[in-house]
Design brief:
Elements: E1 4-13, E2 18-24, E3 35-40, E4 55-59, E5 68-74, H1 81-88, E6 94-102, E7 111-118, H2 122-134, E8 139-147, H3 156-162, E9 167-172, H4 175-185, E10 192-196, H5 199-211, E11 219-221, H6 225-232
Length: about 240
């Protein structure tokens, strides 16, 4: 396994609690839309075993042609040790990156794609929207549904621009409104449904989609193949 130490090029404050860390990209590193990467902080490998409290796997919110590896994350006032240390980092500080993995690339199957997310999970979908804007071949349309009560929607400029490229988006304030809307979207029985969020959020979405007759092979999760069965094993209700 190759571990690359790199520096923070820029820190973008997306909202009071959400920041994007733009990391300088080593020449050997590349990725595709929908990929995630392991991000580690100084000290993670000082002992005999890696300190997993200083490692997180994070979605990459940029594309290679943007020159930087973007990590977009929410850091609340009360947070983990990892987030506390991340919040203290400044431009020029070092972090480690390794193990890029791809779970949810843009599928080109002549279907409509629904991007379903909660809060900062929308960052995972940013590269997919950018790739679609550049090349919409064999994708009928993209629609994004995001639930976030913070009133600070991510990447508004992107989604405003994307509306000219058969990409539509909507934001709701509550889970209740979100699931009502998802039930309506699930009338589209041929579409692909991409879901990003907490494990609880994934399971709730999967249960609703199964109840609406959407089979597991049309539900795409940002999870390693070996973990998919943990979420998709419950078949739709008869």
């Amino acid at each position: 396994m190759n571990i690359y130490w790199t520096t923070i090029h820029k820190i973008v404050e997306e909202s009071p609690e959400v920041k994007t860390y733009l990391l300088n990209c080593p020449d050997e590193v590349s990725w595709e839309e929908g990929a995630h990467i392991h991000l580690a902080l100084k000290g993670f490998n000082d002992g005999e075993k890696p300190n997993r409290q200083l490692i997180r796997h994070m979605s990459i919110s940029t594309l290679p042609n943007e020159r930087y590896i973007g990590i977009t994350t929410r850091i609340k006032e009360e947070c983990s040790e990892f987030k506390q240390r991340l919040r203290e980092l400044r431009v020029g500080d070092q972090v480690a990156i390794f193990k890029i993995h791809l779970n949810i690339p843009l599928r080109r199957e002549n279907r409509k794609i629904y991007l379903l997310s909660s809060g900062v999970g929308l960052a995972t979908f940013r590269p997919l929207v950018l790739v679609y804007i550049n090349d919409s071949d064999e994708v009928k349309q993209i629609h994004s549904l995001n639930v976030d009560s913070s009133k600070h929607s991510l990447f508004p400029e992107l989604f405003n621009e994307a509306s000219e490229h058969a990409v539509t988006s909507e934001f709701v304030d509550s889970r209740q409104d979100y699931y009502k809307r998802l039930e309506q979207l699930a009338h589209d029985k041929e579409a692909l449904y991409y879901v990003v969020g907490s494990d609880e959020f994934l399971l709730q979405n999967i249960t609703l989609l199964h109840e609406q007759g959407i089979p597991s092979d049309q539900i795409k999760l940002d999870k390693h193949e070996r973990r998919l069965a943990d979420f998709l094993q419950i078949e739709k209700l008869a």
